[in-house]
Amino acid sequence: MSLFDSILPINALNGAVSGVENAIVGAFGFGHTKSDGFNKSYATLDAFKGEVLGKGNASENRFDMTVTSPMCLAGTSWIQYAQAANIRIESVQFPALHIITKQRHTFGASAPMPVAADYGGEQGITVTYLCDRNMKIKGMFDAWISSIVDTSSQTVAYPDTYTTKIELSQLDRADMVVYTVSLTDAFPKTVSTMNANQHSSEFQRFQVTYGYRKWSCNEVEYYRQVSAAQNAKSANLGGDVKKSLSDAINSRATALTGIAQKYGLNTSISTINL
């Protein structure tokens, strides 16, 4: 018997013991188990760390909001507090966008089909303001919302007088704007209550909920305009190429007709229109 033959039973025994051990470990959910998968995921911990370390994360406290003064405050003493109100914004939410769908069934399984866009203007966005010591910021919003509906006659003012534009931006760590949305026809629809408490040392705050007609992402609008300009340029370029090709063909046709007439051939090539 060779040395190789004497080792084989030992290897077989070790393999059997190892197989039993792996079966027991696997039954209790421990150890490595063989997978039936055939595609390896790229969403690994190393890939996540590289993504975050390379591009970073946006922070909630890096934002800027600008509310343009409405026409109803122009010429009043309240207009001077509009800029100060922008600085005293403590928190705000970026607006939502919802696609309204209806279920459509033509053949097979039914599927939702988009029919309209809801920009969340009815729900609005809520902004929390820190009050100044003299409560002038709160007074400005009281004057603004009071100009929308007359408290005596209950008549509503024209939208051009009380609506305004709001821009809300996400900033990076260097205070550079990286994302901006613009709200059109915005106005304060609710000015909240304020808390008063003898046992509290918190700063005084109040909230304003702005309604609006719609909102748009400035970056999306920019690329949409660039795409439209490029399409128009391509269309014009295509028209110029078509005209040049047509002129070249007609010029060649005229030359061939002249050659045919020179040699007494009764040939005529009509004008070609592309």
Question: Can you lay out the helices and strands and say which pair or pack?
Answer:
Blueprint: H1 3-27, H2 45-55, E1 63-67, H3 82-87, E2 89-91, E3 98-104, E4 111-118, E5 125-130, H4 136-146, H5 159-162, E6 164-171, E7 177-191, E8 205-211, E9 214-217, H6 218-262
Antiparallel strand pairs: 1-6, 2-5, 3-4, 5-8, 6-7, 7-8, 7-9
List the keywords:
seven-stranded antiparallel sheet; 274 residues; 23% strand; Pnp Oxidase, Chain A; single chain; 2 domains
- Report low-confidence residues grouped into runs of 5 or more: 1-8
Gyration radius from CA atoms, angstroms:
36 Å
The profile of the biggest β sheet is: 7 strands, antiparallel
How many beta-strand elements? 9
- The pLDDT mean sits at 83
Helix/strand/pairing class, anyone? alpha+beta
The third-level CATH topology of the largest domain is Pnp Oxidase, Chain A
Task: Based on the coordinates given, report the CATH architecture of the largest domain.
Answer: Roll
Molecular structure report:
The structure is a single chain. With 274 residues, the protein is of the alpha+beta class. It folds into two domains: 58-212, Pnp Oxidase, Chain A; 218-274, no CATH class. Helix content is 37%, strand content 23%. It has helices at 3-27, 45-55, 82-87, 136-146, 159-162, 218-262, and strands spanning 63-67, 89-91, 98-104, 111-118, 125-130, 164-171, 177-191, 205-211, 214-217. The strands form two sheets. Strands 1, 2, 5, 6, 7, 8 and 9 form a seven-stranded antiparallel beta sheet that branches. It starts with a helix and ends in a 12-residue tail after the last helix.
